[in-house]
């Protein structure tokens, strides 16, 4: 599966700072100092309704992570999946009377268009669950053969008790885990499971549903968590720098994925930092496909909204915050974009050297995008009020805003 084209990232004078970021597993900030190649895995979409503002906010956060790393003169190895076979996708295809493969391809193509318009840097490896199945099957067999997984009526389940570190990503109580498991695709009430929290690794073929050859597992399809583990281990290995996604993936998805990987390899941890973006609401409720309260990037674009304004709207909120999308949020972003573009359109201005360092400091401090926007606001206000004589300043501001915030002026 191919990703989307990369926009050019301008080079800036000097060098950026190492990223200090909130790690869900420890509950505090960690300083990430990767080697020459920084490694990141971000969980992708289930392509049946893309791309809403919740998606956009999440991928914007991890785009900033990449930009901070690139500014430190590192390379970035970025991997993202597409869950192109799963119950919600199949259910939507049945509801709409269309082929599930066609639905997945259509929504994935739309997602690519939105990511391109928003200037999100693409992953080097963009892998669908279906194409990953040949690599998933032997991992499930390994877990089963080692005693970390077991069969139940043809399905294969992972035993969470097999990983001594289970629970150390979310640090949630057993009661909350069970509640979230039921809410987010698990089946804690199924009779015969060794532990109610045990997640499915391989679902035996069901009548009327797609299935694939699972070798000794029999025909079926993979569970949700093992999909990402197989892709991450194949392209990044253990101990990669950042495992990312929305905060709704903390449990069960990232918790289970970590336990799968740790049981397979005997190594700990799967990732050096587990980083999670907040949820975006509309009319007081989290945007979700089940509620249908979605604001889509593609619809805003069709309505003539500049993608740079959409991106500024996302950047105006800290990535870990839960926030609400409103018309005013977008209007404020449109007005900010106009002010910035007017400021950099002049032939000279106040020196921008200090601004570049302010941007670097803000973003290295747990991706504090609102502080970065405020710094550019101050430069633009000074430009409007007093101007300046530095002929290089407007161009440097444009390059810095593009390189570090992904906004083209």
Order of helices and strands: EEEHEHHEHEEHEEHEHEEEHHEHHHH
Question: What is the first-to-last residue Cα distance?
Answer: 31 Å
Q: Specify the CATH class of the largest domain.
A: Alpha Beta
Q: β content, as a range?
A: 15-25%
Q: How are the strands of the largest sheet arranged?
A: 5-4-3-10-11
Query: What's the tally of helices?
Result: 13
Q: Can you tell me the number of structural domains?
A: 2
Largest sheet: 5 strands, parallel
Descriptive report:
The structure is a single chain. Helix 9 crosses helix 10, helix 11 runs antiparallel to helix 12 and helix 11 (353-364) runs parallel beside helix 13 (393-405). The longest helix has 19 residues, at 53-71. The protein starts with 18 loop residues before the first strand and ends with a helix. The chain has helices spanning 53-71, 87-96, 100-117, 129-145, 174-183, 224-235, 250-265, 297-302, 307-315, 327-344, 353-364, 369-385, 393-405; strands at 19-23, 28-32, 37-42, 75-82, 125-128, 149-152, 155-158, 200-204, 220-222, 240-246, 271-277, 280-282, 285-286, 323-324. The chain folds into two domains: 19-290, 3-Layer(aba) Sandwich (Rossmann fold), CATH 3.40.50; 298-405, Anticodon-binding domain of a subclass of class I aminoacyl-tRNA synthetases (Four Helix Bundle (Hemerythrin (Met), subunit A), Up-down Bundle), CATH 1.20.120.640. It contains 13 helices and 14 strands.
